[in-house]
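Good morning,

Attaching, inline, the backbone tokens for the sequence recovery test we're adding to the shared suite. The designed sequence is right after.
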């Protein structure tokens, strides 16, 4: 039976990674997106090397990390903003977007694209925004106001990709780790070595 073990150093590293990831998600800047993507692709490369050179459960972990990491990146590229993780990113964007009178935001114009605007008034969950281009004021809901929606998705998926890959790696070890160890123990080399020992 596989037993989960974490060192104190691994725990500190995990806290650091989660802190940096949350900071990147909340800032939603180009630098944060580029840094998160660089780390993700670096970890995928490390995962491929780990899958080749490691043995046992460590090999299963890195195989799972690489498969799930590449799979999530491919899904994001193919399906764009129609994944379950997008709902989480929209929720997170709602937490970080200032929605007070005078806040500079990106607001949705007639259910379509987002354009720069300023919140003029707030009344029972409805927001009156003044468009920066001088168009007439619009009455919008909170879900139609954001800081920069495309940047939120770009940074969000870049940050979520390593976490999805990590969860996939843990699932691979949970479901296939012991089996791999049992198969290796039953290999012809192991049987031959056991026969010679008798």
């Amino acid at each position: 039976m596989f037993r989960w073990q974490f060192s104190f150093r691994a725990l500190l590293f995990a806290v650091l990674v989660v802190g940096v990831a949350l900071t990147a998600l909340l800032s939603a800047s180009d630098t944060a997106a580029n840094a998160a993507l660089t780390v993700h692709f670096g970890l995928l490369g490390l995962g491929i090397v780990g899958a080749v050179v490691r043995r046992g459960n460590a090999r299963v972990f890195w195989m799972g990390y690489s498969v799930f990491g590449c799979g999530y990146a491919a899904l994001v590229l193919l399906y764009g903003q129609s994944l379950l993780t997008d709902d989480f990113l929209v929720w997170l964007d709602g937490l970080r977007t200032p929605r007070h009178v005078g806040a500079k935001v990106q607001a949705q114009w007639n259910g379509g694209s987002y354009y720069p605007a300023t919140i003029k008034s707030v009344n029972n969950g409805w927001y009156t925004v003044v468009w920066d281009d001088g168009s007439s004021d619009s009455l919008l809901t909170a879900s139609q106001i954001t800081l920069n929606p495309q940047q939120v998705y770009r940074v969000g998926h870049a940050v979520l990709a390593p976490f999805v890959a990590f969860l996939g790696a843990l699932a691979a070890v949970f479901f296939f780790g012991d089996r791999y160890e049992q198969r290796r123990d039953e290999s012809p080399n192991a049987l031959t070595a056991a026969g010679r020992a008798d």
